Amino acid sequence: QESHNTSRGQEAVWKLSRIQFTYDTAERTYFKDAVSPGKHTASSHRLSALVTPAGKSYECQAQQTISLISSDHQKSVQLLLSEVRVQPFDITADFVFSEEHKCPVDEREQLEETLPLILGLILGLVIVITLCIYHIHHKLTANQVQIPRDRSQYKHMG
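== Lysosome-associated membrane glycoprotein 5 ==
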């Protein structure tokens, strides 16, 4: 947990700052034909993940990738997280999460889903308003005398 100075004053947040992942490449279920079987450790370096305002839980449905540095420097280790929900502090009861803080990826996806709907409704409203104005204008000008625009119709007047 740490505090940041913002325009709204002092704001407390919590974040994941270190991960240590231990894996065994001798396990044949996940590591087939491993070159150097054995236990290895991968850890994070200056990590700042799952940043959330204090007092809220973290929720993210989207897939996130965290790169780790392996003890065996020939290997690249990436931790893939999806459908994550974490309540690190202030647990009121077992299996009860506080108000969730959605990750930026989920918020962006939600906006991408709702934005076309909003734009479609606005466009439909503009079309309906335009048709109403045309209808009203047509009704008001229907009883007025129309002056001929073609000059050939003026010949019989002379």
